[in-house]
Design goal:
The structure holds two protein chains of two kinds.
Chain A (H helix, E strand, L loop, with lengths): L5 H27 E2 L3 E2 L2 H8 L1 H33 L3 H16 L2 H12 L4 H8 L13 H25 L3 H9 L4 H29 L3 H6 L7 H11 L3 H30 L1
Antiparallel strand pairs in A: 1-2
Helix pairs in contact in A: 1-12, 2-12, 3-7, 3-9, 4-7, 5-7, 7-9, 8-9, 9-12, 11-12
Chain B lengths: L5 H29 L16 H8 L1 H34 L5 H8 L1 H4 L2 H15 L5 H26 L2 H9 L4 H30 L2 H6 L6 H11 L4 H27 L2 H5 L1
Helix pairs in contact in B: 1-12, 2-12, 3-7, 3-9, 7-9, 8-9, 9-12
The chains are: A mainly alpha, B mainly alpha.
């Protein structure tokens, strides 16, 4: 029977249309409409004329890219190592990846102030070992923001990557070994290509999340490392320029949805 | 097979352990710091005390924020569970056109960057005069929770054999009776997990709340505002309490799903 079950989704659909879709459409309207004159691109021209906006945009892209690469460098070996663990150790490792994923992002960001501060663990270790004399400033600069973001997003890469890795059949690797392939060849010619769709999907996901990051740059950047979200906060809450904020939000929304579409394609491939 | 030399193995183990440490060390450090007697954030703490917990529990503003967070999380998680649960059922068992579109839309709050949801809601609520209202706050939290509920319950409903429901109907049970007596008892562990996830999601929400809550202070909003101004050791106590809450909630989910043998499909 076709057409059954609509009544079950109806209540939620009404809520979503009123409280989610309508506000977003209204925001798009502010970005492209001017009272009495209809469609306009003037708010976008305003963006191009203001060097600050372009600088923040460039900043955001750069930090997002570095944090994503750092995630891959730390996350891939971690997921690969977890695959080779025994059942008990593996379960413990999964728990240690899943738990931070659920802990408030505020707590995880704040923890870095404690770890990376001038009297923090890392600086004390560096000075004790004699590597540096004066404390290294990790906080309130791009380095701190990048570390904090990479930390928050790592589970988003490791969990799907690990899930893809444990699906790889060991017999495939044994077959290659029995035919005389070296460990290096097996890794690069068989194992790595099989993990590539999941790696690419995870990387895109992390990159999208980086672009919209708000809390971590606000706290670990101390106002000195503005990213798009912090700029939007200023345009809404401090110098009310809602049209400008809507215009920037629209760009961020479109970029996100395009990358997300690519992510979905890769993710389907990875779990197929 | 891919292990190679003992050196390769050791290097891989070192990188893996580094990764786990990178993820967990910050959380592990915060806990002892919250019992420090010192005002400065030095590790290890010079001596132990409960003064930051005393400050937290003795501050009426923190207690009020705690009450607001709890009430908003309770209402919005139950609302998301009801609306999202019904929708998940309709999406899995329904045959109407546009199901994929509807599901994509329900997942929207998870896909669209939270900052954009915050701005759209800010502008929309300002337009209709509900900016800073309790209703606006609860509705916002509800729709942010919906994607998680649909994901968890969607998996559970798909795994539940539709023929069991058909048997109940063919024996004359009404739809509502089938849900109550057949579906819910079987899906109870997943429903509980979905509710816990929604509750934590709302209790920890900071971005949208900071934009639209107006005079209402929640724990994360207050924490965020204080962190931007100055580093206050009371926050370490709040952070430790939030970590404890999360560990307890996840442990409860793991025990209940583990007993029902449903742990794996929900978490991975």
């Amino acid at each position: 029977m076709r057409g059954q079950g609509v009544s079950f989704i109806a209540p939620l659909l009404v809520l979503m249309v009123v409280a989610f879709n309508a506000p977003i459409v209204y925001m798009l309207g502010l970005a492209f409409w001017e009272k009495g004159r209809g469609f306009t691109l003037e708010h976008y021209e305003g963006l191009l004329d203001t060097p600050v906006y372009l600088r923040v945009l460039g900043n955001t892209m750069r930090i997002a890219l570095i944090a994503t690469i750092a995630n891959v460098i730390v996350g891939y070996p971690l997921a690969h190592w977890m695959r080779g663990l025994g059942p008990r150790a593996r379960l413990l490792a999964i728990a240690l990846v899943v738990l931070p994923f659920w802990v408030s992002i505020l707590v995880r960001t704040y923890a870095w102030i404690v770890v990376l501060g001038n009297g923090g663990l890392v600086n004390r270790a560096l000075q004790w070992s004699g590597l540096t004399d004066a404390p290294v400033s990790f906080l309130y600069n791009e380095l701190g923001v990048t570390i904090g973001m990479a930390n928050v997003l790592l589970p988003f890469l490791v969990l799907p990557l690990f899930a893809a890795m444990i699906r790889i059949d060991d017999r495939l690797l044994q077959a290659a070994a029995s035919l005389g392939a070296s460990p290096r060849t097996i890794f690069w010619k068989i194992y790595f290509p099989l993990t590539l769709p999941a790696l690419a999907a995870g990387t895109l996901l992390v990159f999208i999340l980086c672009l919209g990051f708000y809390v971590t740059p606000a706290i670990l950047g101390g106002g000195r490392v503005p990213m798009i979200s912090n700029l939007l906060d200023t345009l809404i809450n401090q110098i009310p320029r809602w049209e400008q904020a809507s215009a920037i939000s629209t760009i961020l929304l479109i970029v996100t949805l395009v990358i997300f579409a690519a992510y979905r394609r890769l993710d389907r491939k990875a779990s197929a | 097979m891919m292990d190679g030399s003992p050196w390769t193995r050791r290097a891989l183990a070192a990188m893996g352990i580094f990764g786990l440490a990178f993820l967990t060390v910050p959380l592990v450090i915060v806990i002892p710091m919250s019992f420090s007697s010192a005002k400065a954030l030095t590790f290890p703490p010079p001596s132990l005390s409960l003064r930051w917990y005393a400050t937290f529990f003795g501050d009426p503003r923190w207690m009020e924020a705690m009450a607001t967070s709890t009430i908003v999380a309770l209402i919005s998680s139950v609302a998301a569970l009801l609306l999202g649960g019904l929708a998940a059922y309709g999406l899995r068992r329904g045959t109407f056109a546009g199901r994929d579109w509807a599901e994509g839309n329900f997942m929207g709050p998870l896909i669209v960057p939270t900052i954009i949801v915050a701005i759209a809601l800010y502008l929309g609520l300002a337009k209709i005069g509900l900016l800073g209202s309790f209703v606006g706050l609860v509705v916002a939290h509800t729709l942010l929770n919906v994607p998680l509920v649909i994901m968890v319950l969607g998996v559970a409903i798909r795994a539940f054999d539709a023929r069991i429901e058909q048997v109940a109907w063919s024996l004359g049970a009404s739809w509502w009776y089938t849900v109550r007596k057949v579906m819910l008892p079987n899906l109870a562990p997943s429903v509980f997990a979905a509710w816990i996830f929604a509750f934590i999601g709302s209790f920890d929400e900071v971005i949208v709340t900071s934009f639209i809550a107006g005079k209402y202070e929640t724990v994360p909003k207050k924490m965020f505002n204080e962190l931007i101004l100055e580093v206050n050791p009371t926050i370490t106590a709040v952070a430790t309490l939030l970590i404890a809450l999360t560990v307890l909630a996840l442990a409860a989910v793991a025990v209940i799903l583990g007993r029902a043998g449903k742990l794996k499909p929900t978490l991975v």
